[in-house]
Amino acid sequence: MLKNKIVAAVSVAALACGLASCSSAGEDKTLTLGYMPAWTDTVSGANLLKEQFTEAGYDVELEELSDAAVFYTALDNGDIDIFPLAWSERTHKKYMDQYGENLEDLGIGYDKAESFFAVPTYMDDVNSISDLKGQADRFGGKIVGIEPGAGLTELSSNTVDAYGLEDEGYTLATSSTPAMLAELENAIDNQEDIVVTLWSPFWANSQYDIKRLEDPEGSMGEPENMHWLARDGFSEQFPDVVDYLGNLTLDQEQYESLENLIVNEYEDGDEDKAVQEWLGTHGDALPKLNDA
């Protein structure tokens, strides 16, 4: 069972002193946030938190990680402090089953996240995963996926089984998120048929002319929440941060506009500028640091 060690006494103390003033002079104020470059939800979440916590006087480090298994291992080992916007309820269930006993759930960062198959909107006759049957040749026998270790890949593989698509001549082709998007963009540019695995929230849903396929078998699951996860013992060491994150939940417009600025509007290395622009529009809607 996932731990939640946030006790009333800790919360009261944090509320009394505020995020910026709660740490004593001798207390370690370094926070390490994990992220994966290919997973723009972690990039967006980590950079938003970096700005907020740096402003509050913390020393913030960003740790680049390679895949979901490494992410959860690093959190379990205490190599990072926070996993921003983890799909911990269902998509990452196998990792939570393995590591969740030693992790802390600090709250919901985004609700109603979804996973699905998608095709270009010009494919008028394909509106459901069931419609893929009997048409493997049309798609080159391929469903274009992302990283092999992603929770979405496991859900997609289960969906291929649920609809008997392997027997229909399909394979789930894993690669990386950037490679999947490159194939999608190339297919749309050339008005070709393609089916990809996708999720929401994600900037690509508004960037590309695509539609999600209905899932009558329900194999991709119901919407889930994305959580702020922390290493074991974090709430005792940083009660102020815990209370702040417990109040920080982004809605769809807030999240997608932040992600779009970071991914599409600014160059790599300018994430802080993207966050500053976003805060200029959305900062007032966030919980105040001295209320944490």
From TrEMBL:
CDD domains tied to this protein: PBP2_OpuAC_like (cd13639)
Main localization (coarse): membrane
Biological process according to GO: choline transport; glycine betaine transport
This protein's record includes keyword Protease: no
Superkingdom classification of source: Bacteria
Assigned GO CC terms: ATP-binding cassette (ABC) transporter complex
Keywords from the UniProt entry: Cell membrane, Membrane, Signal, Transport
InterPro entries for this protein: ABC_Gly_betaine_transp_sub-bd
Keyword Repeat carried by entry: no
PROSITE patterns associated with the record: PROKAR_LIPOPROTEIN (PS51257)
GO molecular function terms noted in the UniProt entry: amine transmembrane transporter activity; carnitine transmembrane transporter activity
Signal peptide positions (record): 1-25
The protein, known as: Glycine betaine-binding periplasmic protein
Cell compartment(s), UniProt: Cell membrane
ABC-type glycine betaine transport system substrate-binding domain sequence ranges: 29-279
